[in-house]
């Protein structure tokens, strides 16, 4: 499995399975954020099953489903809170890693330059350019 690091303490990836959890733990992550809504995926890889595997491995699991085109302020606040409270690296997944990258960037607006918030995900093929204005606006708050 490939961890796509946006910072030394935050990485994203496409959808994982319960069988991937040992690799997540071995990579040193302490918290896992599920950004994929259950309605998009078959039952065996829905949040309840990932939660059980992640918690059995001794990590924190946070279900923060991001609906395409409808990221809420609560979604962004949850993403920021998990990163701020984690006692180590955070791993987030969704369908491709894109939504997890967007949530990261929005949660970090004002903490890092907008260009950097767009460039880090771009190294993995995630295009956050359409979010430039929103990132800049959040940075001003």
Structural description of this entry:
The chain is of the alpha/beta class and 141 residues long. It has 6 helices and 5 strands, in the order ββαβαβαβααα. The chain has one domain (4-139): Protein tyrosine phosphatase superfamily (Protein-Tyrosine Phosphatase, Chain A, Alpha-Beta Complex), CATH 3.90.190.10. It has a 5-stranded mixed beta sheet, sandwiched between helices. β3 (31-34), α2 and β4 form a beta-alpha-beta unit. α3 packs across α4 (98-108) and α5 crosses α6 (132-139). The mean pLDDT is 95.
How many separate domains? 1
Silhouette: globular
Could you name the CATH class?
Answer: Alpha Beta
> What CATH architecture would you give?
Alpha-Beta Complex
Largest sheet: 5 strands, mixed
Low-confidence stretches: none
From the alpha carbons, calculate the radius of gyration and give it in angstroms: 14 Å
Into which percentage range does the β-strand content fall? 5-15%
GO molecular function, one term: transferase activity
Protein name: TIGR01244 family sulfur transferase
Keywords: Transferase
Domain Beta-lactamase hydrolase-like protein phosphatase-like: 2-110
